[in-house]
Amino acid sequence: AAAAAQDEWADTDAGTRGGYLREVAKHLDDREEELTETLVREEGKTRTEASGEVGRAIDIFYYYAERAMDYNGENKNPTSGNQNLYYVREPMGVAGLVTPWNYPIAIPSWKMAPALATGNTVAIKPAQATPNTVRMLFEAFDEADLPDGVANFVTGSGSEVGEAIVTHDEVDCVSFTGSRQVGDTIYEQATDDHKRIQTELGSKNPTLVMPSADVAEAASTVGGAAFGVT
């Protein structure tokens, strides 16, 4: 379905694509409390954390609704008077997305919104532990009248459904967030088929604390980022 819908979606005016994303954001905003409650029950976040994540997802769709127009192309000043330079960004095609359980609405939004804004269609497999939050996100797509096949939602195990997405002939690029072990496997599978791939693995990063910083606050912030909600 994503492949069948891709050409027409890519040819859709960028302002129209942005309009769909804006409607998605509005519908998510209208159901913010319900989404927060679902996230609390399904994943176990505190209400404060869940509300913050839902708010982030809403902001992401509003942001890319406005940015959709930025990807049309741009004129460049030529080096001589006899040239006219213009470049256009073109969609990659079908984006296969595999997302984790720890941010079950923010990360899918983070991956889907820019892909859709730039004319790609998507097929997403959320974590098995947290499918309902993503299901509600797709209800917002339906309420916004997003064309059929532009966004697709499949559930199942990573070893079966995830692998099927990553290795499918009609998937042009892959984005994965999860463990290093699984990410390495996905990277090999995708690159064997010459797909473009982006992975976010582990998310443990060094932190530089300057002498002028509040060390106690830095330790609390880094500890929370490293061990919270994982």
TrEMBL record:
One Gene Ontology MF term: oxidoreductase activity
Keyword Oxidoreductase: yes
Superkingdom, taxonomy of origin: Archaea
Keywords recorded for this protein, A-Z: Oxidoreductase
Domain Aldehyde dehydrogenase: residue ranges: 1-228
Subunit: Homotetramer.
PANTHER family linked to this entry: ALDEHYDE DEHYDROGENASE-RELATED
Stated family: Belongs to the aldehyde dehydrogenase family.
Full protein name: Aldehyde dehydrogenase family protein
UniProt organism field: Halobium palmae
